């Protein structure tokens, strides 16, 4: 049974050697040949700081969530998660202190790449050890989800380091496929972490999950053929409308959880975390719209 379930729900990524951060994104080494544009010094600095400041906090929080969901006897993994919380807190602090100088920003990015690669491997390890072994309270989907976010951050930062920007059509397709799936996952987590008595909120969350799964299919369909600017604009408008609704729902849910007005085992930190990720998706849609 396990051998059937594992490949379906827990696809293993080849994350390579932790000391070789180029190993999982070799396609980003050939961006120059793909008709991309070059980032100016200012764009390079701004994008580096923006991504570091957003995702390093996210990585720090992932370590916290994984630790909180591990069973008490998983002492080695708990200790490693604690170490990652400390490491990413320090790196986040550095991301706010690094001067806007290309050389120093490059060093920040390189250090972040190595650390993020390590936490991606850790997440993969937690996934393998949790499933049917340690158990605990980390859903397999949640562990896989936070691992995918680490890999996305690695790819994004590697691209920034190359100082190249993908053609807008590629970004419209890839960014939306990634973030729409992330939004679908969040909706499913919320539905499962609410108390079974909170039927109204559970149903709303499930509906969001189904809506975003359908949008993932739509986004994947764009990958077949060359979508016109008009088609991409229309799609972005649809995604934006859905993401705005989901963000509003998450904001409302976060307040209800913080004020103990809803029964759940959702940590307010997780509610706030997924709300910030919805806001990040909206900011990416805005940037894509401005490039079309
Ligand atoms: Fe996350
Ligand atoms: Fe997420």
Automatic annotation (TrEMBL):
One Pfam family per UniProt: DUF2935
InterPro entries linked: CotB-like
Highest taxon of source: Bacteria
Protein name as catalogued: DUF2935 domain-containing protein
Gene source species: Paenibacillus chartarius
